[in-house]
Each structure stands twice: as structure tokens, then as C-alpha cells.
Amino acid sequence: AQLVESGGGLVQPGGSLRLSCATSGFIFSSYSMYWIRQAPGKGLEWVSEIDISGRHKAYAESVEGRFTISRDNGKRMLYLQMNNLKPEDTAMYYCVRTVPRTSWTRGERGQGTQVIVSS
Questions:
Q1: Distance between CA atoms of 77 and 91, rounded to whole angstroms?
Q2: Which residues is 21 bridged to in the sheet?
Q3: d(CA 93, CA 19)
Q4: Rounded distance, CA 119 to CA 24, Å?
Q5: Are strands 32-38 and 91-98 parallel, antiparallel or unpaired?
Q6: Are 26 and 40 in contact (CB under 8 A)?
Q7: Is the confidence at residue 101, as pLDDT, over 90?
Q8: Phi, psi values for residue 30, rounded to 5°
Q9: Contact at 8 Å (CB) between 115 and 90?
């Protein structure tokens, strides 16, 4: 299985980015998907999750109302639309796959994409 994140970069506070996760090698529509992140010097942090249908989503309080997770099962893609970015959103962002009802901590992740929010 492969998960390849892209879309990161340097953005000013208040700006937007859209992260993508391209997947292959497994039945994408059968897996719950997550975005997690790791800020410099900190541990992994759960950001958002989406169920196999795409109807049920959840967000960390720190990103609620600013980030939107979505998936396209036909294209085997996961997305994270990030608006009103803040310096504290600076981190390496990873997509994670798990079978349903399994913690993201037990999932498989990609290599990550770096997001830097700075003026």
C-alpha cells in the first residue's frame, strides 16, 4: 500500500492550503482515513478523520471550523482544506489509513508534507 501526501508549503497567517493524499495498493473505500500532524519538537497529533462513506467527519478542537476533510473514493484520494491558517498549524502533515473502528495510532501513514505558516 502507498499513501503519498502533497500540497504543503509556506503560507502566511490567514492563508489557505489544500493537502492531498494519493493512495494505491489497497481498497481505499474500505478504510477510514485520518490526517495527523507533528509540529517541531512535539508528538503526533490527531487533526481530523473521515469514515469510509465520507459522511461522518470529526475534527480536533484546534482546527474545527477552519479545516475540512474530504475523500473521493472513485479517485482514491483524501483531502484536507485548511483555511485561516495560524502559525501553530506549522507541522508535518500525514495521512493515515486504518480499518474501520481502529485508532489512527495503529494505522499506516505516508511520508508527510510540510506546512509552514509564517509571515
A1: 21
A2: 5, 78
A3: 8
A4: 36
A5: antiparallel
A6: no
A7: no
A8: -100, 0
A9: yes
